[in-house]
Structures are given as C-alpha cells and as structure tokens.
Amino acid sequence: MRAAFPVVEQRVAHFYAMQEYHLGWRDADLQPALFDPGKLLRPQLAILACRAVGGQMEQVLPLAAAIQLIHDFTLIHDDIQDQSDMRRGRETVWKQWGLAHGINVGDGMFIIAHMSLYRLTDAGVPAPVILDVLQRFEATNLRICEGQFLDLSFEGDLGICEADYLAMIERKTATLLAGAASMGAVIGGADAAIVAALYTFGLSLGMAFQIQDDILGIWGDPAVTGKPGAADLYRRKLSLPIIYTLRSNAEGAQLYQAELQQRYQQAHLHDQDVERMLIALDATGSRRYCEEVAFDYYQQALHALDQVQPGPSDEAAEALAQMRALPAQLLGRQT
Prior knowledge:
Elements: H1 13-23, H2 41-52, H3 57-82, E1 86-87, E2 90-91, H4 93-97, H5 99-118, H6 127-154, H7 162-187, H8 192-219, H9 222-225, H10 231-234, H11 240-246, H12 253-264, H13 271-283, H14 286-305, H15 314-331
Antiparallel strand pairs: 1-2
C-alpha cells in the first residue's frame, strides 16, 4: 500500500499525510504512528484466493493493496455522508480537517488505489490478465456506489422490505469481498468456473459478515465491541433485525411494530425507549432469525468453496484451508 503512494514535494505533503492518517499511519498531528488499520479482510481474501489456485503472492500484492485502498476510500466518503465523527477510535478525516478536505482526500485515495493496480505490470502479470482485473475492479467500484445510493435512499424509510435491504448490502459490503476473491483467482490463473465459484464464495461471505455486524450492532457486548450497547438502535439504523420485526407475522407483532415505528420516528431516544425496542425485537424472534440468515449464507460460502480444487502445492492447499476457516471465524466473531 505504501508503495502505491507517489514521491511528492513538500507543499502537497499534507494532502497525502491526511490519507495516511486515515490509514492509521499518522497521528492527528500527522506524525508517523501506527493505529488500528481495520480487519484487512479483503486484501487477505485476494491473496488467499490467488495462492489457493496456484498463483504467486508477489503477483497479487498490488491488487491486494488496491482493494484495501478502495475500501478505505469508501470509508472516508461514507463518514462524510453519514456525518460520522469517529472511525476506529479516532476522529474521521472530515471531522479533523473539514468537509472539503475530506472529499478531496477520499478522491485522492481512489486514484492511488488505481495506481496500485497498475503496478501489476511491474509484478509480471500479463497485460490481458491486467485488463480483465481492471474491468472487474471498475465494475466492483460501480456496484459499491449503487449500494451507497440505496443506503442513502433507504434512510428513514420504514417501508423497505428484506429484499431491498439484502440488495443494498450485497452491493455495499459483499461485492468487494466477492471482487477480492475472484480477482485474486484471475491473477492466479484460475479458469472461469473457479473464478465464478470464488466470486460466489466472497459474496456469500460478505452477506454473512454484514448480517453478523447487524447482530453485534444491537446485541454485541460493549466490553468486547468497544461500542455502546444497542448502538444501532440509538442511531435508528434500519438493519435486518429491525426490518424483520417490522414485517413479522408473529402473534402480537403488530403492537410491537407500532411501538418500534413510533420510537424510530422520535426526535430523541432515551434509554427506556431502547429497552422497549429490545423487548420488541426479542418478542418477534428477530435475533434468532438473523442468525439463521447469516448461517445460510455461511453454508452457501462453503458450498461454493467445495467447487475449488487447490493448486499443485502444499502452499495452495494451506491457502484453501485458510479460506475455508474464514466463514466460521466471521460468523462467530464478537467484534
């Protein structure tokens, strides 16, 4: 990732330092530091997919860096659009330096992600493969923008259904994991069927990942997650547990639905309001349902991976085994 950044003159160094702040490489005074970079799941997935089909790690690294940089670009802009003050325990870029700089820093990281991808040439990846990866990369980016459009459009809309929500998270969250796995396989030299199977694996993994996030956003242990209890309820986030309860046909659900709608439309929420919402979610079996949906995607991910045969080396078999362990790790995570 660092290699993708250009050598710059002093008068624009601050622009790149703000990007490095977001990545966890600098503190608020823009001095070198090392902060939490996030889970780095997406670049790991690209590397593992490439190695699993017999590819070389050195050739996939520019792609892995590009994928993490594009993910971080989306987070910078997402923080602006959501007016989020904090990211990974620190002030967000726009909160620290203002809205205009935040937009520009995000734009810069989008371009640097592409600059990283062009380094595939230096890694010895053939030109036709690079073109294939570039096309997949851009299609993935466009799908992410579609997902963000849906997310913004759905804000405050208590009438959306589960299918609407799943269509949104498939684009906003799952598509980048799908792209990481499939593009890693392309660089590794996999055939079309294996690339498609790994795309499905990444997509299903991403869906399970997001739904587990939805569960943790309401029922996660604050001592483990580092976030307030029921944080998504205080934010009035329309996640899958809420949508399920609002559409539930369970006995007595109408009463809980009316109560939930009323509180989601209040200007301010108090602790007792959140307690009542938790009661409504529990009464309709919302958590159990979401766990079942996440588990179904987990099974779909493993089924897709069953179609992948490792490359002819111990390293390839080990990479595939690590990929197989990922769904269980993500499904059972507490943070």
